[in-house]
Amino acid sequence: MSGRTIWKGYIQFSDVNVPVKLHTAVQQDRVQFHLLHKRDRVKLRQQMICAYEKSPVPVEEQTKGYELENRKYILVDPEELEQTGPEGDRMI
């Protein structure tokens, strides 16, 4: 199994651009186990439980937030996170 590409870009020599791919060099050789229901032998799924209501929260009601102080959060939309990321410069 070939390594996964972790970076793609170009190296520039004067007027020549050479495409480059950076691959992981280590292959994971350890055995990975799954958490199963003993009786049914079926994989278990994780549920997000509201700490206040003690009930499962559907994915569409989940969001990210930043804690300002104890139990006071600012909600952050995924679009906002994308806008704050570094600008992509593929030059080395």
Description:
The chain is mainly beta and 92 residues long. It has one domain (5-26, 33-83). 8% of the residues lie in helices and 35% in strands. It has one helix spanning 78-84, and strands at 5-13, 16-23, 36-37, 42-43, 64-69, 72-76. The strands form three sheets. Strands 1-2 form a two-stranded antiparallel ribbon.
Q: Give the number of DSSP strands.
A: 6
Number of domains: 1
| Secondary-structure element order, N to C | EEEEEEH
Helix proportion: under 10%
Using the alpha-carbon principal axes, give the shape: flat
The largest beta-sheet arranges its strands as 1-2
Q: What is the average per-residue confidence, as pLDDT, rounded to a whole number?
A: 86
Structural class computed from helices and strand pairing: mainly beta
Instruction: Please give the largest β-sheet.
Output: 2 strands, antiparallel
Q: From the alpha carbons, calculate the radius of gyration and give it in angstroms.
A: 22 Å
What is the element layout, followed by pairings?
Layout: E1 5-13, E2 16-23, E3 36-37, E4 42-43, E5 64-69, E6 72-76, H1 78-84
Antiparallel strand pairs: 1-2, 3-4, 5-6
What are the salient characteristics of this protein?
two-stranded antiparallel ribbon; mainly beta; single chain; 1 helix; 92 residues; 6 strands; 8% helix; flat
Summary, kept brief:
This protein has one domain.
